[in-house]
Write a structure and sequence with these properties.
The complex is a heterotrimer. Chain A is of the alpha/beta class. Chain A folds into two domains: 191 residues, Rossmann fold; 112 residues, Rossmann fold (3-Layer(aba) Sandwich), CATH 3.40.50.920. In chain B, helix 2 packs across helix 8. By secondary structure, chain B is an alpha/beta fold. Chain B has one domain: Rossmann fold, CATH 3.40.50.970. The longest helix of chain B is centred in the C-terminal third of the chain and has 19 residues. Chain B starts with a helix and ends with a strand. Helix content of chain B is 37%, strand content 18%. Chain C is an alpha/beta fold. Chain C has a seven-stranded mixed sheet, with helices on both faces. In chain C, strand 4, helix 2 and strand 5 form a beta-alpha-beta unit. Chain C starts with a strand and ends with a strand. The chains are: A alpha/beta, B alpha/beta, C alpha/beta. At the A-B interface, helix 3, helix 5 and strand 9 of A face strand 1, strand 2, helix 3 and helix 5 of B. Strand 8 of chain A pairs antiparallel with strand 2 of chain C.
């Protein structure tokens, strides 16, 4: 029988983590995502699946705990919100540089600075362009429902381990705080230490006699060798671009106008499309599910068929840059979005389509 | 009668040998540096306790960043100051493993103070080794949190001025206050006797992990001839005359 | 069926939990649901509101500007949300502390004096269930059986002995809701 629960996005992340066999969660409280660790601490998975849950002294410590755990080949994750994620950027680049798999969930709030605790999508650049120093990318998934908050935990781990790369779940305060129906997946056992040693021969599990000792590091003082390593990383990112693009389209078949939006904004835009179609305006939506890799080809193909594109996000305009790169001048691309923690209404998006795309 | 080298190198003539845990790599440390001795001691202890298979070691940023080139155990290279956070997760996820972190003064007592104090305060069941030479060696001799009053460094070229630069930090005394620590000691490796004592301390640090007693913390007051701009012999003397009065050797806590 | 509701009042009135019970009732009835709260400092003594959507179809936007129903439980919320009711929609309010009554002519307006009734029942906690009862009388989109199942799901088990009291409060709400304006 299906197990249907009504839960918050933040709670769904916690529950899904236990069920998909996560070994460790390390975090630090911050609004609007504190329910993730609160849920885990209430469920006490260390008594059931053996999952470790620890409240760290800072986001800096928690991301570095991920480094330690990931280097052991364990499935480890953290969650935070924008200011905390900024603090984690050091750890993220080390994780990427050491090619360690892990999952980080960002329940975004409005910035810059301490900002607001209300939802926003203004961490897009930080998420998809690297965020810390050096040439690297995270794999970025953008859930648009509580169900996806749950499902993407496992998907993020699958991708993180497949490519030995940190994966980021980029949601926001709206999806984190809202409740929807969720179908929970059955429990999967955690990997045993023996399984980890077989599956991840690179992991620091203690040196057996029959292999050379393992070193997990992001340091390479020989620039010529480090260039070779960087080129290898870039090939990996290209592989990810080639194989892992995920997106969803909504009423695009006959669309004359295209909206591009992810996460919460994509939900709002679905309502806008319904309202636009009631007024006889044929609009459709492309929702990137992966933000890195970005559905560049798919947007470019749709750009050949529509009269104009509106990129909608709860920020001053970040996603729109990637949409414009994808469209490459084929058709007009404009940005619309509230920012600073304000959520645009479906009606406001309708007006923006009329004024910026149809009328403009 | 001439003696051939083959006549000398025989098992029955063996009085000392390099630990099998050490690699054959030539250490990059400067002449007179304490790091090489400390690294050798850790290797010897791991070999003698027979725990090479069970050790996960964590290297810092600083002169010991390349420690993983010398000891044949599984290594993680941490970001600057974060080794105790890595060690925390490793031990919690692999309680069947011995975890040892190795950090210098800038790493442990400046940029990583929060991680250090909180790991010790949680009583993470790990061994932390702290090399205190009062200077940043790797980056070229800048002032450390443990640089003594009046001691010259490239960022306090006229000597540490307490009014301007603040006080040297006795972090080991601070850590001894924390209920999570079971063993806090300050040692050195500048004489044969001191080396023996430090080795005993390291053995105890690993044994404490087996006994699940909490955090063991070993400070090794060390020399940095290059940073101090002294010869190795002068460095040892200077350490005895200046470092030891401020950082006195001995056990601070042992329970 | 697609019902878009805003419930707004003071923090502590049980606004969010009433929305949760309604959402859970929808789940029990096999509907799609969403529950989107205002969160943060607003929860601590200030105004609190929650958007609840119950639908037979997949729900698009959980955040809305216009609602089929506004359940309004204080004056600030009246000022903010009266205008947000769709023409032909429903406004249900508790008259307690209301100094400016609704003025729209193009919507249905009902009043439930739940604060007063809860006081008379000597059970302040029954307040939000009285309001829920009044709403369900006007829009019986979920069956009482599913409401009780939803209530059971959203209450921690240690509070299950309170279920009969809640049921009574819901029933009381259905009785005392008053029509103010038809269209």
């Amino acid at each position: 029988m299906k197990e249907i629960r009504l839960m918050k996005g933040n709670e769904a992340i916690a529950e899904a983590a236990i069920r998909c066999g996560v070994d460790g969660y390390f975090g630090y409280p911050i609004t609007p995502q504190s329910e993730v660790m609160e849920t885990l601490m209430a469920l006490q998975p260390w008594k059931t699946t053996g999952m470790v849950v620890l409240q760290a002294e800072s986001e800096t410590a928690s991301i570095n705990m991920l480094y330690g755990g990931a280097a052991c080949g364990k499935k480890v994750m953290t969650s935070s919100s924008s200011p905390g994620i900024s603090l984690m950027q050091e750890g993220m680049t080390y994780l990427a540089g050491a090619e360690l798999p892990c999952v980080v969930a960002n329940v975004v709030r409005g910035g810059p600075g301490l900002g607001t605790i209300q939802p926003a999508q203004s961490d897009y650049f930080q998420s998809v362009k690297g965020g810390g120093h050096g040439d690297y990318h995270l794999i970025v998934l953008a859930p648009a429902s509580v169900q996806e908050m749950a499902d993407f935990v496992e998907l993020a781990f699958d991708l993180a381990f497949k490519y030995r790369n940190p994966a980021l779940i980029l949601s926001d305060g709206m999806i984190g705080q809202m409740m929807e129906k969720v179908e929970m997946k059955p429990y999967k056992p955690r990997w045993t230490n023996d399984e980890i040693e077989q599956m991840h021969p690179w992991a620091t599990t203690g040196k057996p006699e029959n292999r050379k000792y393992n070193i997990v590091t992001s340091l390479e003082l020989d620039s010529a060798r480090f260039e070779v390593f960087n080129e290898k990383l870039q090939r990996k990112y290209q592989q990810i671009r080639d194989n892992e693009v995920r997106y969803e389209t909504f009423e695009c078949d006959d669309a004359e106008y295209l909206l591009v939006a992810y996460g919460s904004s994509a939900r709002i835009c679905q309502k806008s499309i319904q309202l636009l179609r009631e007024q006889g305006i044929k609009a459709g939506l492309l929702r990137p599910i992966t933000l890195f890799p970005f559905p560049t080809k798919e947007i470019n193909a749709l750009a050949s068929r529509v009269k104009g594109i509106l990129s909608v996000e709860m920020s001053a305009g970040q996603l729109v840059e990637d949409v414009r790169l994808a469209v490459n001048g084929k058709v007009k691309v404009e940005h619309y979005g509230r920012c600073g923690g304000m959520i645009h209404s479906p009606e406001e998006v309708v007006e923006a389509v009329k004024q910026k795309i149809i009328g403009g | 009668m001439s003696v051939d080298i083959k006549d000398i190198i025989k098992p029955e003539n063996l009085v000392y040998k390099k630990s099998s845990v050490l690699t054959d790599n030539v250490m990059h440390y400067c002449p007179g540096c304490s790091h090489g001795v400390a690294a050798k001691l850790i290797a010897e202890v791991i070999e003698e306790l027979g725990i090479q298979r069970e050790v996960i070691a964590i290297a810092p940023v600083g002169c010991s960043v390349l420690l993983y080139n010398y000891l044949q155990v599984d290594w993680q290279e941490a970001a600057h100051g974060r080794a105790p956070a890595l060690g925390t997760a490793v031990k919690r996820l692999r309680p069947d493993r011995y975890v040892v972190t190795y950090q210098g003064d800038g790493d442990l007592a400046a940029i990583g103070t929060a991680e250090t104090i909180h790991a010790c305060n949680r009583g993470e069941n790990i061994l932390m080794i702290f090399i205190n030479n009062g200077i940043y060696g790797m980056t070229g001799g800048q002032m450390a949190p443990t640089t003594l009053e009046g001691m010259k460094a490239s960022t306090c070229p006229f000597g540490r001025d307490l009014e301007h630069d603040g006080n040297p930090l006795k972090i080991t005394e601070l850590i001894a206050q924390l209920p999570g620590t079971c063993y806090v000691t300050r040692q050195s490796v500048h004489t044969a006797a001191a080396v023996r004592k430090t080795k005993k301390a390291i053995i105890k640090g690993f044994q404490n992990q087996k006994a699940e007693k909490g955090t063991s913390f070993i400070e090794i007051v060390s020399t940095c001839s290059s940073g101090w701009k002294l010869t190795p012999a002068q460095s040892n003397k200077w350490m005895e005359e200046h470092m030891f009065p401020f950082y006195p050797l001995g056990d601070i806590k042992d329970r | 069926m697609n019902e878009e509701i805003i419930i707004a009042g003071f923090g502590g009135q049980g606004v969010l939990s009433m929305g949760k019970i309604l959402a859970y009732s929808g789940v029990m009835q096999g509907m799609e649901v969403s529950w989107l709260p205002s969160y943060g400092p607003e929860m601590r003594g200030g105004t609190a509101n929650v958007t609840v959507i119950l639908s037979d179809n997949r729900i698009s936007s959980p955040a809305l500007k216009k609602y089929d129903t506004a359940i309004i439980l204080n004056q600030q919320s009246m000022d903010k949300f009266e205008a947000a009711v769709k023409p032909g929609g429903l406004l249900l309010y508790d008259g307690n502390g209301i100094t400016r009554h609704p003025e729209r002519k193009d919507i249905r307006i009902y009043r439930v004096d739940a604060t007063q009734e809860a006081t008379e029942m000597q059970n302040q906690k029954a307040f939000n269930m009285i309001v829920l009862g009044a709403y369900l009388k006007l829009k019986p989109i979920v069956t009482m059986e599913n409401v009780m199942n939803g209530l059971k799901k959203s209450l921690p088990e240690r509070h299950h002995h309170l279920l009969p009291q809640n049921e009574k409060a819901i029933a009381r709400g259905t009785e005392i809701v008053k029509e103010i304006q038809k269209i």
